[in-house]
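Might you be able to check the backbone structure tokens below? Thank you kindly.
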Amino acid sequence: MFTGIVTDVGEVLAVEPRAQGLHHRLTIGCSYDRATIVDGASIACNGVCMTVVGAGVENGRTWFAVDAAAETLKVTTVGQWQRGGRVNLERALRVADELGGHVVAAHADGVAQVVEREDLPDMARFTLRVPAALARFIAPKGSVALDGVSLTINDVAGDVFSVLIIPHTLTVTTLASWQAGTEVNIEVDLMARYAARLLEGRS
């Protein structure tokens, strides 16, 4: 489990297609202490939970490798990642850690698209379009994870919603680079998903 509070911004160092393109081996540079990264550890990369399959240090910088399976490449933006790209990182939640955002599984539900960016004094407003099947899980003042960042939803109109990004978040994540047309991984709130499922059962 995760919280949607980014703890590092990593850099994609290598993308290696494997198994006739059915999955990718990704190498990501980060500032985490190499000694704390073990094989099998979970790290959320732009909101996608990935399993570490190798790690090391090169030129004084920690790196870790992960495999992205075909399903991940299909339903997220991972298949678009290229060398030099920046990704939001978060280590898995530990017992007694502060739950600063909201409960995030880092199992992306799909891809949302930025349709408008509005730069305001000291912050930015992004309007995004969500896949129609996920629209019912988006509600004003509810939570959503976008590229692994826990955010509060402001306005909602059909399959379009907006979020306000404060200066700190713009500084410590990749969100400052978003523009109209940018595609981002979205994970809807777990509580909204279960509430919808309960209502389906009653009907």
Residues 8-91 form a domain with the Elongation Factor Tu (Ef-tu); domain 3 fold (CATH 2.40.30.20). The helical segments are 70-75, 167-172, 190-202. Residues 190-202 form the longest helix (13 residues). The two ends are 31 Å apart (CA to CA).
